[in-house]
Amino acid sequence: MIKRVDINTSYALYCEDKTNSQNRIKMKRTIFITLSILFINQSFLIAQENGTKLGANKIGITFSSFGENDVFRFDELDGAASYNSDYFFTIGINYLHPLTKWLEFETGIEYSKHNIIIKPNLPPDMDNSSRKAGFSMINVPATLRANFLKYFFVNGGLILDIDASTNSPIDNQTGIGALIGVSVKYDFKSGVSAFVNPYTKIHSLIPFLDRKYHQRIWENGIRVGITYDLKMK
Predict the structure, then answer these.
(1) Least buried of 88, 146, 147, 151, by fewest C-beta within 10 Å?
(2) DSSP E strand boundaries for 73-174
(3) Is 43 helix (H, G, I), strand (E, B) or coil?
């Protein structure tokens, strides 16, 4: 009788945790869609008066981390293992090209390493121990950066995700992703600029290797970077 209570209790706790996880994913999807719409509107609302002289091209380096990397499915599977965020980091080189006085196109190349915690959903009499696993990706962003009020910008766009893992614990992440963020920046007279950029990404939003119940990565983090004005001597 005591064993049965323990099994029922474990199952009830698992179901509750699974429900909470699904609710968090739905909430995140809603927030991401809302922020995407706000970003599109903001890009038009914050437009400053275009000038005849554009800024310079810029090149820089970036580092991203300090957040979460959750694995999720749009339609969750009952009885599947659960995946919890552990840690991640991304390093990259970025390139900025001015389109107008206030709008810039940003691209580059990034390498990211992700670590997650996998908790199997097995019967109580089997080993349910969590285990750590990792995978890596190469990202090529194609985004817009809308500058406003001198010290701020909002950014958003698409990402080409390339799964660089040889033995990934989750579905292949090669595909098209999306990101949105807001940033504080400071431009030095020397041509160097520094920024801090909280962001949200969804990797493999449109997977190239499409399959039912495809896993995706929801990444929240902070990107810090330094860029240099290529016209400065």
Answers:
(1) 151
(2) 82-98, 103-119, 131-148, 152-163
(3) helix
Instruction: Say how far apart CA 189 and CA 137 lie, in whole Å.
Output: 35
Residue 70, CA atoms < 13 Å, CB-side half-sphere: 15
CATH value at residue 21:
2.40.160.20
pLDDT tens for 145-167 read 999 998 999 999 999 999 998 88
pTM over the 0.85 mark: no
Between the alpha carbon of residue 128 and those of residues 4, 125, 173, 232, the distances in Å are 17, 9, 26, 58
- What are the helix (H) ranges across the chain? 2-45
Total of domains in the chain: 1
Residues 166-183 pLDDT 10s: 888 888 899 999 999 999
